[in-house]
Amino acid sequence: MYIIVVGGGKVGYYLTKTLVHEGYEVFLIEKNPIKCQIYAERFGAVVMQGDGAEAAILEAAGAGRADVVIAVTGDDEDNLVICQMAKERFGVARAIARVNNPKNEELFRKLGIDVTVSQTNVILSIIEQQIPERPFVHLLALRHADLAIVEAKVSDDSPVVDQPIERIQFPPEVNVTAVLRAGDLIIPTGQTVIRAGDEIIAVTKREREEELRHLLVD
Amino acid sequence: MRILIVGCGRVGWRLASDFTTRGHDVVVVDIKPHAFRQLPEEFPGRVIVGTGIDEDVLRSAGIEHADVFVAVTDDDNTNIMAAQIAQKIYHVPRVVLRVYDPVRAEIFRELGLTVVCPTTTVASLIEEQVLAGAASPQG
């Protein structure tokens, strides 16, 4: 698989380093000549100086045969245009954009970018997961499928307490995938009995999140 | 017409002045507050400090009701992103943008944007003048 990374800031640098280490064929495009020189010493000939939003630069980097283009500069307008150029001009199958302003995630999707990564939102969701005693945590949104992975701590007075899963009236389109009890991971079956204080990890349609929260923690 | 102009450089303020003179309702957005100093003192339009790729800024500039959207900052990618927000998200009826890079201009023209590329326009004007001079040599 051939991957082109555009933007050699901290994100681009560590991304390139990791991808190279994992054995992918990677090419990094960075504007700043001094950074390019340093990176070239570390990575070898997989670094090129230039503006990744220019067709000539993308072409020289071999965008025509790239499987993935990842735009991780600090400017959203550049990341958007780089991804659109890669798709429209070079027919790259997958374009991934870093979104610096979290508001732009939705916008980029509407403008046809396959995958967006918002550092702010990622950090925010990790912080949320780490804040203790939050009974219901949204772990991950799988946007294209409209699915979410959530974690809920079963409250003492939830109607599911001491019920086997097969007898619990979960909202439709909810699948309990794991139960954490006192640090032990249980892969549940229909016979698994839910206890108060269990942490349930479930895959759910996003619009069912509220119902599920209501059932388990309210 | 309600006209929203992003970028108050030489072209932006020229357009803003011309459109207001013709009685249009003009709002100009620029990220640099000092950019507006170029506008005539009695400029009747509105000015907003902010970036033209921020939906909140564009909404406060009235993008939802704009008839015309013009993106003429000095950055091609900013113009491309702003114009796409205007055309694809807010469905502004007439969207025009400037793109210096001829290749990018062509690609986004194919994607349905109305792109003015000063590089090719000016080059062909100069070429015309040069060739006209060559056709009728003076002295």
Q: N-to-C terminal Cα separation of chain A, in Å?
A: 47 Å
How would you describe the oligomerization state of the chains in this entry?
heterodimer
How many helix segments of chain A? 7
Look at the structure and give the mean pLDDT of chain A: 89
Structural class of chain A: alpha/beta
Largest interface (CB < 8 Å):
A-B, 20 and 22 residues
Radius of gyration of chain B: 17 Å
- Shape label of chain A: elongated
Strand order of the largest sheet of chain A: 3-2-1-4-5-6
Secondary-structure element sequence of chain A? EHEHEHEHEHEHEEEEEH
Q: How many strands in all of chain B?
A: 6
Strand order of the largest sheet of chain B: 3-2-1-4-5-6
- Shape descriptor of chain B reads globular
Gyration radius of chain A (Cα, Å) is 22 Å
CATH topology of the largest domain in chain A: Rossmann fold
C-alpha end-to-end distance of chain B: 51 Å
Broad structural category of chain B: alpha/beta
Task: Outline the structure in words.
The complex is a heterodimer of chains A (218) and B (139). Chain A is α/β, with parallel strands linked by helices. Chain A folds into two domains: 2-121, NAD(P)-binding Rossmann-like Domain (Rossmann fold, 3-Layer(aba) Sandwich), CATH 3.40.50.720; 132-217, Alpha-Beta Plaits. Chain A is built from seven helices and eleven strands. Chain A has helices spanning 10-21, 33-43, 55-60, 76-90, 104-110, 119-130, 209-217, and strands at 2-6, 25-30, 47-49, 68-71, 94-99, 115-118, 136-142, 147-153, 174-181, 184-186, 199-205. Chain A has a six-stranded parallel β-sheet, sandwiched between helices. Chain B is an alpha/beta fold and 139 residues long. Chain B contains five helices and six strands, in the order βαββαβαβαβα. Chain B has helices at residues 10-21, 55-60, 76-89, 102-110, 118-135; strands at residues 2-6, 25-30, 46-49, 68-71, 94-98, 114-116. In chain B, strands 3-2-1-4-5-6 form a six-stranded parallel β-sheet, sandwiched between helices. In chain B, helix 4 links the parallel strand 5 (94-98) and strand 6 (114-116). Chain B is globular and about 55 Å long. Chain B starts with a strand and ends with a helix. The model of chain B has no long low-confidence stretch (mean pLDDT 93). The chains are: A alpha/beta (218), B alpha/beta (139). The A-B interface holds A 53-56, 75-78, 80-81, 84-85, 88-89, 101, 103-104, 107, 110-111 and B 53-56, 75-78, 80-82, 84-85, 88-89, 101, 103-104, 107-108, 110-111.
